[in-house]
Amino acid sequence: MFMEKFIAKKKFGQNFLTNSAIIDNIVNSANVNSDDLIIEIGPGKGALTSKLVKKGCQVLAFEIDTDTKPYLEQIASDNLSIIFGNFLDADLKEVLSNYQFNNLYIIANLPYYITTPIITKIIASEINPKQLTLMVQKEVADRFCAEPGNKEYGYFTVKLNYFFNIRKLCSVKRQYFSPQPNVDSAVVVFENKDYDKTLYKKFDELITKAFRMKRKTLKNNLGSDLFNKLLPELMNNGYGSDVRAEQINLETYIKLAKLL
Ligand code: SAM
Questions:
Q1: Which of 49, 55, 141, 194 could form a disulfide with 43 if both were Cys (CB 3.0 to 4.6 A apart)?
Q2: CB of 42 closer than 6 A to ligand 1?
Q3: How many of the other CB atoms lie within 10 Å of CB of 104?
């Protein structure tokens, strides 16, 4: 079939993956069974999708750009459904109620301009994916995987690690995309973990306050009353009264949230 040359759209973050080893690495990161469901965000011209459908489980893709239709039609398959629309506008619980599946996986070479809103939406919609495999900008991957004390460690690091065990799968050079972006990338795997659902609201309130002003101490960010209430537990965990939010590990934040 004749197809006009596809002109990538910057406004949709279109940088298509061209390296087959990286594509295989991403696809193989999901150990799915035939009764599982994979959501792909932004299939584009189908570089990942064409391999995901071969895994045998159902694949549901959300793509904002209808110009990709001719490409995606070429990989049409009984186990592939495509919703053309903005993933951020989708009612995920409603959409998923039409599917029967065991575990949910999410895979995406993300449009970088909406990395944070997409991950925030996935968490907020409570669809509980077993695993996410996401291509993100290298610096963002470093932030997700940062350890306490590292300058990349921040509010979003602590928040994401509440829900997932996070690891970097591989680095991806900018040369492996077409068109080439201005940044290098990395693939990050998020595995779901047991977390206390009932504590999350307090936990989020605490870390929001704790990381309010980067340069300030925890005492300054929390205010004296709250800080003094938490100080004994902080000291039990080896932290002093001049501690800063970026030095405190997840386990300690969880213990502190239980005191609120
Ligand atoms: N998966 C393809 C690949 O790896 O070559 C394309 C990845 S490209 C970085 C991001 C894709 O997400 C594009 O196809 C773009 O049109 C799509 N996209 C951008 N914003 C979107 C949104 N809000 N909802 C759904 N898809 C979106």
A1: 49
A2: yes
A3: 22
* 4 located within any domain: no
7-50 pLDDT, tens digit each: 999 999 999 999 999 999 999 999 999 999 999 999 999 999 99
Residues 19 and 110 in one domain: yes
Q: Which domain holds residue 219?
A: 200-257
Residue located via tokens 């929390």: 222
For residue 12, which atom of ligand 1 is closest to its CA?
Answer: 19
Please count the structural domains in the chain: 2
Question: Residue 127 C-alpha to ligand 1 middle, in angstroms?
Answer: 21
DSSP-assigned states of every residue in 154-184: -HHHHHHHHHEEEEEEEEE-GGGEES--SS-
Average pLDDT, the chain: 97
Point out the ligand 1 atom lying closest to the alpha carbon of residue 17.
5
